[in-house]
Design goal:
The chain is mainly beta and 394 residues long. It has three domains: 161 residues, Nucleic acid-binding proteins (OB fold (Dihydrolipoamide Acetyltransferase, E2P)); 118 residues, Beta Barrel (OB fold (Dihydrolipoamide Acetyltransferase, E2P)), CATH 2.40.50; 64 residues. It is 10% helix and 30% strand. Strands 2, 3, 4, 5, 6 and 9 form a six-stranded mixed β-sheet that branches. It has a five-stranded mixed β-barrel with strand order 11-12-13-15-14. The longest helix has 20 residues. The radius of gyration is 24 Å and the shape is elongated. It starts with a strand and ends with a strand. The relative contact order is 0.14. The N terminus is likely disordered.
């Protein structure tokens, strides 16, 4: 039997009202500043442009603004608890104390991508920074800075994921494959970035549903990495960088990092799709429940951390915010004429057509049986070639 599966196109769910709100905001709040020559409205796509080595080619100019949706609550990713430590002749090298980080995603349309906003308390503990204390925050000043970027300056509103915000940046640095909004490792207020509320509870973007095959190869590339890198940012990890995604069909390989009370580097786990691909997951600073023992889907922010300032062609990873039993809307065909799909997809049905040129999709009338949590249909062998799809019933 010749069987081909045909995916249905995804549907955008950004409401007309949301788009109208956004463009009204641009007209009222940003364009007047542009006219005055005080600010440059930047796109996420332009900010994250890279060369063939994955290194930023962005034409740096400040100040800039970016408008997008907050993907993370302050405090989900990094622990901002004040913890000042002096350089102490290098004893505290790289100990940055409290750290603060959020991600913001473009609204779509002609713009795409996302950006990290980051700052830390003890810049003075970086080996290349001054070690006289001038580039570290004391505990009280750091707490004030964390409060400043975690609240709308006009209303005092505490930011939450799903808010529509405007970032005003006076500094940024490239590292690990991404251009990041930050203070350029300085406590000088000249480099401060601010976040302002445009609309609360605007809503999180619908995650891009992907599989590991979209971003990881089973064959080593010339760089020695499995990551799929495309400098045009039209495919591979660059296509999803800084955005909300859902990766389907994962199984944990390692679980040591599945906890909520450790630093960033200790919260890594490794997942696989069962087809020789492996991918790093980062646990958030809140409880996701026990480490899943069965196949699951993970939703979160698609990051990149290559650990290099000169090679941004690898290092993709997922910051996990939600997990769920695997419910990928994908049909599976066994060697025998059997079709299965997750039983959790109660609002889906299998449809077939004998042609894709002028398809006439009709419901497959075979009554599915529940086998190991999967809806299962046994097909009649030896029939004419057919095409099948899993169709959502409205």
């Amino acid at each position: 039997m010749n069987v081909t599966f045909v995916p249905e196109p995804s549907q955008a769910n950004v409401s007309r009202r949301a788009k109208t709100t956004f463009f009204k905001f641009l007209a009222c709040e940003v364009c007047c500043l542009l006219t005055a020559g005080l600010i440059h409205a930047e796109s996420f796509s332009n900010l994250e442009v890279v060369d063939t080595n994955g290194v930023s080619t962005w034409n740096r100019t400040f100040p800039i603004t970016l408008v997008g949706v907050l993907l993370t609550d302050p405090g989900q990713m990094l622990d901002s608890t004040p913890d000042f430590l002096p350089w102490d002749n290098g004893a505290n090298a790289y100990n940055l104390g409290g750290e603060w980080q959020v991600f913001v995603q473009a609204l779509g349309g002609s713009d795409r991508g996302g950006v990290e906003c980051w700052m830390a308390q003890n810049y003075g503990n970086l080996p290349w920074e001054p070690h006289d204390g001038s580039d570290s925050y004391d505990n009280a000043t750091w707490a004030s800075e964390v409060s400043r970027v975690s609240h709308d300056p006009a209303t005092g509103y505490a930011f939450r994921e799903g808010d529509l915000v405007m970032i005003t940046a006076n500094g940024a640095l490239f590292y690990g494959g991404m251009e990041n909004i930050n203070e350029e490792h300085s406590t000088d207020p000249t480099y401060d970035f601010t976040i302002s509320l445009v609309s609360s509870h605007f809503g999180l973007p619908t995650p891009h549903v992907i599989s590991l095959s979209s971003v990881i190869s089973t064959n080593l590339s010339g760089t020695g990495h499995y990551d799929i890198f495309d400098p045009t940012r039209q495919s591979g990890g660059e296509f999803y960088q800084g955005m909300r995604v859902r990766i389907n069909g994962l199984t944990l390989v390692t679980t040591d990092g599945w906890n909520t009370n450790s630093d960033w580097d200790s919260r890594y786990c490794t997942a696989t799709d069962g087809e020789s691909r492996q991918f790093p997951l980062i646990h958030p600073l809140y409880d996701l429940g026990p480490a899943p023992t069965n196949q699951f889907d993970a939703t979160g922010v698609f990051l990149q951390e290559s650990g290099s300032g000169t090679d941004g062609t690898f290092g993709y990873e997922l910051f996990v915010q939600e997990i769920a039993p695997s419910s990928s809307a994908v049909l599976n065909l066994a060697n025998q004429p059997v079709i299965t799909w997750p039983a959790s997809l109660a609002n889906y049905e299998v449809q077939s057509s004998d042609s894709l040129t002028t398809p006439n999709w009709t419901s497959v009338t075979n009554v599915p049986a529940l086998v190991n949590g999967q809806n299962t249909i046994v097909l009649t062998p030896g029939g004419a070639p057919e095409f099948f799809r899993l169709h959502r019933v409205q």
